[in-house]
Design a protein that fits this description.
heterodimer; A: alpha/beta; Rossmann fold; 2 domains; 13% strand; globular; disordered N terminus; B: mainly alpha
Chain lengths: 268, 321
């Protein structure tokens, strides 16, 4: 806390622990990669991350491992980390920053706040501005093309068996809306619902997107479920895209994720 | 005997079947089927109802048999560890993302896990030329603990995503029911039921004690082995069809005992029908509460079944196996 006397108020914390893959990616994008001393076992991007000390999973990080790294600040999210863990860290007088952005539109503001908390207000603002511009760019392009595509119905499959899809409040749902399309699962009651197969047949999506499962051949895994959806326009017309993990983490790579999605949707 | 009661049970089962096919989550009018509705009816709802029914039948029947074989009112098909073994191998496949047999991978893995576990329990329960109820029970409980611990270990080192998939399967997942699963489910469940119904008279005798069974001309150890195999087959088939569904195996036999008494010749088929019907209703409800999201059917069976069971328990004063 006061041990870093050499570091003035204007310099960023020298020892940061990140408790979420998205936070790790944002910290790298802010140029603080070298200041990260601990990450979760799920942090795998960028490549250098894999050499960092692991402090456990997102939902069950080890308090001891985090404390022993003597962090100046622990960066966590409301989405994946338990609230109680933050309270535990506070009782040990470890400074925390909780990233509360959950939606794509909230990301730039979240990064601004993170930048301010890490004494790199300018860098945070710059990255946020960059993201803001990209996001408005997408929206503008959709507007230019006219509203014709808005009737296009999309289904984003997170996992095929059992069928789990991206519902309301997810980055995938945001991205689909941003690109002017309709996510058929956005009326579901949870973010990642186990979705009714017969409802998919009824809704008849025009495009099916299949997310990336860690280290699995999604084409192979989803063969069975697609076979059961042969009457759906997306399957009949071969409008199926296998996407990367860009949309899975609310970080700077989300832009690539949206671009990949846009590319798929505009392919026809 | 209680023919009207059995007739009523069959009638209720048929009614449940029809409701499951045509009612929810969105009603389908069989008189005017659109193309989509025909597809939903025949390739989604019908196989799903059949799979649910088979699972429920297997659990109800094997519960009734097992409570008799073990002479224990708390026994259920899962107490022998068979389901924990199945869950372990299935979770291994789910978390590890194995797909060597396509959609069949997880059911086959679960079945293998169940059969192996059943075999281990059988070997552990075997002493002095036969199976002993207390040994079977303790071996099953011991193995359950071991397998559950291994399962938790696997889940705690898995990603959140793999964990959720494994959880969904373990809580019972009927959403992947397709026609290909029906035939093998049918074969194993029917084989198990036939075996146990044919030996129901011997089971009646076993419940009263080995000596009594012996005096009636049954070989207790041989009968116990046959009945144990039938339970193993049915439980393995059921877990492999759609994961673990709580409540039915333990409490459906008790509910049926309240109605038709403890004669295994009636109790086994009645528990089977009751189990099948209950799981179909539970699945119907689980699809209808928050559409288009589906809830785990196993949760619903217990939520609707347990209060009813408790109500019956309050009303009756004699309890038996």
């Amino acid at each position: 806390m006061f041990s870093e006397a050499a570091a003035g108020p204007a310099s960023p914390p020298a020892r940061i622990v990140s408790l979420a893959p998205s936070m790790t990616e944002i910290l790298y994008a802010l140029g603080l990669g070298d200041n990260i001393v601990g990450v979760t076992s799920f942090c795998d991007y960028p490549e250098e991350t894999k050499k960092k000390t692991r402090v456990g999973g997102m939902s069950n990080p080890s308090l001891e491992a985090v404390a022993s790294l003597k962090p100046d600040i622990v960066v966590m999210t409301t989405d994946g980390n338990p609230r109680e863990f933050e309270e535990l860290l506070r009782t040990l007088h470890i400074k925390t920053f909780v990233f509360t952005a959950r939606r794509i539109a909230e990301l730039p503001q979240g990064i601004r706040e993170l930048g301010a908390a890490l004494n790199i207000r300018d860098r945070g603002a710059a990255l946020a501005k960059e993201l803001d511009q990209s996001l408005t760019g997408f929206a503008a392009r959709v507007k230019a093309h006219g509203p014709g595509k808005s009737k296009e119905k999309i289904l984003y499959i997170i996992w095929p068996e059992p069928l789990i899809v991206a519902g309301p409040g997810t980055a995938m749902d945001d991205a689909i809306a941003l690109l002017g399309r309709t996510n058929i699962a956005s009326s579901a009651s949870t973010a990642y619902p186990k979705y009714s197969l017969e409802e998919v047949l009824r809704q008849a999506p025009d495009v099916i997107l299949i997310g990336k499962g860690s280290g699995m051949d999604m084409m192979e895994v989803s063969r069975g479920i697609l076979h059961r959806m042969t009457s759906v326009p997306a399957v009949r017309n071969g409008n199926i895209c296998y996407l990367g993990d860009g949309l899975y983490r609310l970080g700077p790579r989300i832009i690539q994720g949206i671009e990949e999605l846009a590319e798929c949707l505009n392919r026809k | 005997m209680s023919k009207p009661k059995i007739a009523a049970l069959i009638l209720v089962t048929c009614l449940v079947f029809l409701c499951s096919l045509f009612l929810a989550p969105k009603a389908i009018n069989p008189a005017s089927l659109s193309d989509i509705e025909r597809e939903i009816l025949f390739s989604i709802r019908l196989p799903r109802v059949l799979v649910a029914f088979l699972m429920g039948v297997a659990l109800g029947a094997s519960g009734a048999v097992l409570q008799g074989v073990l002479r224990n009112p708390l026994a259920d098909p899962y107490i022998l560890g068979i389901s924990s073994g199945a869950s372990l191998t299935a979770a291994l496949g789910i978390i590890g993302g194995l797909t060597f047999l396509g959609s069949f991978t997880i059911p086959v893995l679960a079945f293998i896990g169940a059969i192996i576990t059943g075999g281990i329990v059988g070997v552990m329960g075997w002493k002095r030329g036969g199976l002993w109820p207390e040994r079977l029970l303790l071996a099953g409980v011991g193995l359950s603990f071991l397998f559950s611990a291994l399962l938790m270990l696997m889940m705690s080192i898995s990603t959140d995503e793999g964990l959720r998939r494994a959880m969904l399967w373990i809580f019972g997942d009927l959403s992947m029911s397709e026609w290909q699963r029906v035939p093998y489910g049918l074969v194993f469940v029917l084989a198990g039921i036939a075996l146990s119904v044919v030996r129901a008279k011997a089971l009646n005798a076993l419940i009263l004690g080995d000596e009594f069974a012996h005096s009636l001309g049954f070989a207790p150890q041989r009968e116990r082995l046959i009945l144990f195999v039938s339970v193993g087959l049915m439980t393995a088939a059921s877990v492999s069809l759609g994961g673990m569904i709580g409540f039915i195996g333990l409490l459906m036999p008790h509910i049926m005992r309240f109605f038709i008494g403890s004669d295994s010749r009636m109790l086994i088929p009645a528990s089977a029908l009751g189990g099948g019907a209950l799981l179909c209703i539970a699945d119907l409800i689980s699809k209808s509460i928050m559409p288009p999201m589906e809830l785990p059917a196993g949760v619903v069976t217990a939520i609707i079944g347990a209060p009813y069971f408790l109500y019956l328990l309050r009303r009756k004063d004699v309890l038996s196996v």
